[in-house]
Amino acid sequence: MTDEEVEKLSLAYQSLVRWIHDNAIDGESTMSILFKAAMTIAVANNVPKDEVMSVASTVYEMEKFYHPTPEDIH
């Protein structure tokens, strides 16, 4: 990726995160919409299933680390 592509991707991600926090849709529905969109992109680009699941798992663990629940802390 070029620096310009990385910057565009970063801005898109920031915009998406802002939308997630500001929308009036409940968290489970938002997650469902975004996960389905991600799977559509993966299938359209012939990404291997194992790679998709590895990325999903890694992102889940990363977000869990950055946004722990009270149960995770104690």
Described by strand count, sense and barrel closure, the largest sheet is:
none
Work out the helix count: 4
Mean pLDDT: 87
Overall helicity = over 70%
Strand content: under 5%
Give the number of DSSP strands.
0
Going by helix content, strand content and strand pairing, the class is mainly alpha
Task: Based on Cα principal axes, name the global outline.
Answer: globular
Secondary-structure element order, as H and E? HHHH
Low-confidence stretches: none
Distance between the termini: 41 Å
**C-alpha Rg (nearest Å):** 15 Å
Which descriptors would you attach to this protein?
0% strand; mainly alpha; 74 residues; globular; single chain
Topology, element by element:
Blueprint: H1 3-22, H2 27-44, H3 49-66, H4 70-73
What does this structure look like?
- The protein is an all-alpha fold and 74 residues long.
- It contains four helices and no strands.
- It has helices at residues 3-22, 27-44, 49-66, 70-73.
- It is globular.
- The relative contact order is 0.06.
- The model has no long low-confidence stretch (mean pLDDT 87).
